[in-house]
Amino acid sequence: MSDKPDPDLIVDPLTPRAKHGVVVVKDPPEAAMNLTADAAEISGLRLIDAADRARERD
Questions:
Q1: Torsion of the alpha carbons at 23, 24, 30 and 32, rounded to the nearest 10
Q2: Would you give per-residue pLDDT tens digits along the chain (58 residues)?
Q3: Other C-beta atoms within 10 Å of 3: how many?
Q4: pTM higher than 0.85
Q5: Contact (Cβ atoms closer than 8 angstroms) between residue 21 and residue 14
Q6: Are 50 and 18 in contact (CB under 8 A)?
Q7: Is 16 exposed, middle or buried (0-12, 13-18, 19+ CB in 10 A)?
Q8: Contact between 42 and 10 (Cβ < 8 Å)
Q9: 27 forms bridges with which residues in the sheet?
Q10: Is 43 exposed, middle or buried (0-12, 13-18, 19+ CB in 10 A)?
């Protein structure tokens, strides 16, 4: 196993926003994402929250 961290590994959670009935996520790369378990869990919760807020604004 390599001691070098994966440069493509996302360690910070995504920051989705609710906007006009949709959820906008601008910070992920366009290709596949590699997230740490913590970043994935928090991102998932944030996406659910943003979806709820997007429905309220629609």
A1: -30
A2: 566 778 788 898 999 999 989 999 887 667 778 899 999 999 999 999 999 999 987 5
A3: 4
A4: no
A5: no
A6: yes
A7: buried
A8: no
A9: none
A10: buried
